[in-house]
Design a protein that fits this description.
Layout lengths: L2 E5 L4 H16 L8 E6 L5 H17 L5 H8 L2 E5 L8 H7 L7 E5 L6 H10 L7 E5 L7 H12 L7 E3 L7 H11 L13 E9 L8 H26 L8 H13 L9 H4 E11 L2 E3 L2 H5 L8 E7 L9 E7 L6 E8 L18 E7 L3 E9 L10 E7 L2 H4 L8 H11 L8 H20 L5 E5 L5 H8 L8
Parallel strand pairs: 1-2, 1-4, 2-3, 4-5, 5-6, 7-11, 8-16
Antiparallel strand pairs: 7-12, 8-9, 8-10, 10-11, 12-13, 13-14, 14-15
Length: 481
């Protein structure tokens, strides 16, 4: 029998993602019926209370055809709950007992405040929940800079081997992110073009229309750079830029990713003004509805950035001279996450330089709100034209929804939880990756401080400060809006 321990089990992440994900695995027969799922948090609940909370979280999924009530009831029967103050060492023995003792395989999902990591690890160690049969998944944030991240990782490493540690970036669980690996390394036509000779630039956008959404204290202490760029966006960049790994294994894939992260050109005090833009949203309208500015939502003035745009470079042979443009922000015009590969124009147009409609090819990998891959090619417009042929971009759309219409769209955490339970680390982040990411981010933040850079205001419902447009248009390119 395997036990799954969910720390922070009554929180928002658990209700929206973790419990529905475990239920989805159960419905698909990927989670055995004898797996014991033990939730723990400070909330004073018993087993029945936790099951009622879980039933409420599952109801929308059951109502939309995921399993049925009988299947949901069977899953709820696998749940148990142990109230726990993470700083009270006496409570961990009850947790170990609820998990079935120290001899069972245990998968721990740790979603707590960074300040509780160290006492939680100490409590787990004292209760015998750190042995070789135990794996621990760590939800972000893993620190606020390189030093604090190293402190957390040192605390975890004191009790767990690296092979037992699963650092979670939920973007790596998304189908289209994984499909990026298939696209690159299972299709011979892309590899000869996946380099500076054929690619002009790369864009990575993670845009949100929401504001603080109940994350006031955390977000104001983090900002867009640390909340989104340090983890999700640098991981996407690494997957785009990595060399082909020898095998689809944790070591081979992560070795190649860390090479990319270590090759990032520092955006330091000398470059930060020309290679980065920060912003903070003000009042405006999103989806036709008026919204307040960041300072109004926060209740005070703040210098925290809610928007970041970067021009990054990977200094190696493959990507020599290719800029990677990254942007992320809150209260933007549209919610979307995407990767755009912008190819170079043809070296010579046989149709003449002034041919109508001529445009370079583009590969657009959409992550949300819809997962899809689209390739734009040039095609002749049907009809007659005395002067010249007319061209138009035509999209070759893989159409994930249509191509895989018979496959359920999964929550990203389903894949990650399954891999945590079964011990596959390929889609998790290794310590040297995390530290390379923080080294890059710390350099940018230091450059901002040295140059006295403050976030530029932008209206909610727009695409951020105008300086972000200038950042890319100086290179004769445009954001994919």
């Amino acid at each position: 029998m395997t036990a799954v321990l969910l720390f922070g089990a009554t929180g928002d992440l658990s209700r929206r993602m973790l419990l529905p994900s475990l239920y989805g695995l159960s419905v698909d027969g990927l989670l055995a019926g004898d797996v014991r799922i033990v939730g723990t948090a400070r909330s004073d609940l018993d087993d029945a209370g936790f099951r009622a909370l879980a039933a409420e979280a599952l109801a929308p999924h059951v109502g939309h055809g995921l399993g049925d009530q009988a299947r949901a009831d069977a899953f709820l029967g696998q749940l148990a709950y142990v109230p726990l103050d993470a700083t009270d060492m006496s409570g961990y023995a009850r947790l170990a007992q609820a998990a079935g003792g120290n001899d069972q395989p245990v998968a721990i999902f740790l979603s707590t405040a960074p300040s509780l990591f160290k006492p939680t690890i100490e409590g787990l160690a004292g209760a015998g929940l750190t042995g070789p049969n135990v794996r621990i998944g760590l939800e972000k944030p893993l620190g606020s800079d390189l030093a604090s991240s190293a402190e957390i990782n040192d605390a975890v490493a004191a009790a767990f081997a690296e092979t037992q540690i699963f650092r979670i970036d939920h973007y790596l669980g998304k189908e289209t992110v994984q499909n990026l690996l298939a696209l690159r390394f299972a299709n011979v036509l892309f590899e000869p073009l996946w380099r500076s000779e054929a690619i002009q630039h790369v864009q990575i956008t993670v845009a949100e229309t929401v504001g603080l959404e109940g994350r006031v204290d955390f977000y104001d202490g983090a900002g867009a750079l640390r909340d989104m760029v340090q983890n999700h966006m640098l991981q996407l960049l690494a997957l785009v830029a990595m060399e082909p790994p020898s095998h689809f294994t944790a070591t081979a894939v992560r070795d190649e990713k860390v090479k990319v992260l270590n090759s990032l050109r520092p955006i330091d005090g000398g470059r930060v003004s020309s290679h980065s833009v920060t912003g903070q949203y003000g009042t405006g309208a999103v989806g036709g509805k008026p919204v307040r500015g960041y300072a109004e939502e926060l209740g005070r003035a703040s210098s925290t950035e809610t928007f970041v745009a970067l021009k990054a470079h990977v200094d190696n042979w493959r990507w020599k001279g290719v800029p990677f443009y990254l942007r992320t922000g809150k209260r933007l015009e549209t919610r979307k996450s995407e990767i755009l590969i912008a190819f170079r124009p043809v070296p010579h147009s046989i149709f003449g330089e002034d041919v109508r409609g001529m445009a370079p090819n583009r590969l657009l990998i959409s992550l949300q709100p819809e997962e899809n891959i689209q390739m734009s090619l040039m095609s002749k417009v049907p009809g007659l034209d005395r002067a010249s042929i007319r061209l138009r971009e035509v999209a070759l759309d893989i159409g994930q929804k249509d191509a895989f219409a018979d496959t359920r769209r999964r929550i990203a955490y389903e894949q990650l939880l399954l891999d945590l339970i079964e011990g596959r680390q390929t889609l998790f982040v290794r310590r040297d990756e995390v530290e390379a990411q923080w080294l890059f981010i710390d350099g940018i933040r230091k450059g901002w401080a040295e140059n006295g850079m403050q976030p530029r205001p932008y209206s909610s419902g727009t695409w951020g400060p105008s300086a972000a447009i200038a950042l890319i248009e100086r290179d004769n390119a445009s954001w994919n809006d």
